[in-house]
Design a protein that fits this description.
This protein has no helices and seven strands. By secondary structure, the protein is mainly β. The strands form two sheets. A four-stranded antiparallel sheet has the order 4-3-6-7, with no helix packed on it. Strands 1-2-5 form a three-stranded antiparallel sheet, with no helix packed on it. It is elongated and about 40 Å long. The termini are far apart.
Length: 107
């Protein structure tokens, strides 16, 4: 469609254009033996996906999948007893942003 240059072309402020504060803190202990803990901070209520990937990019576990969280600090625990030694990625996804942290499993 054509744009009428006489119309007001203001910036649209939809929910995806607003700045959000999302922080995925370093999981601990790292390296870890079988269980690792971590937390993340969000400044608004939003849907969260928190997943674990191997270095091939394959999904190996879902900690939270499409769950709604209120603003604040939230904690998680991942039990990797059945996983082989190696490097994994903790991936936190929202509609606005993606954060990753590298973790090392050593048994």
């Amino acid at each position: 469609p054509d744009i009428n240059l006489g119309q007001n072309l203001g910036i649209r402020k939809d929910k995806k254009s607003r700045k959000r504060n999302l922080k995925l803190n370093n999981p601990y202990p790292n390296p870890f033996n079988s269980t690792i803990m971590g937390d993340f901070f969000i400044d608004n209520s939003m849907i969260i996906n928190l997943s674990i990937y191997n270095l091939k990019g394959e999904l190996v576990d879902k900690i939270f999948s499409g769950e709604m969280f209120d603003s604040g600090i939230h904690h998680y625990l991942w039990n990797a007893e059945k996983m082989p030694n190696g490097v994994y990625i903790v991936r936190l996804e929202t509609d606005y942003e993606i954060k990753n942290k590298k973790i090392i499993l050593l048994k």
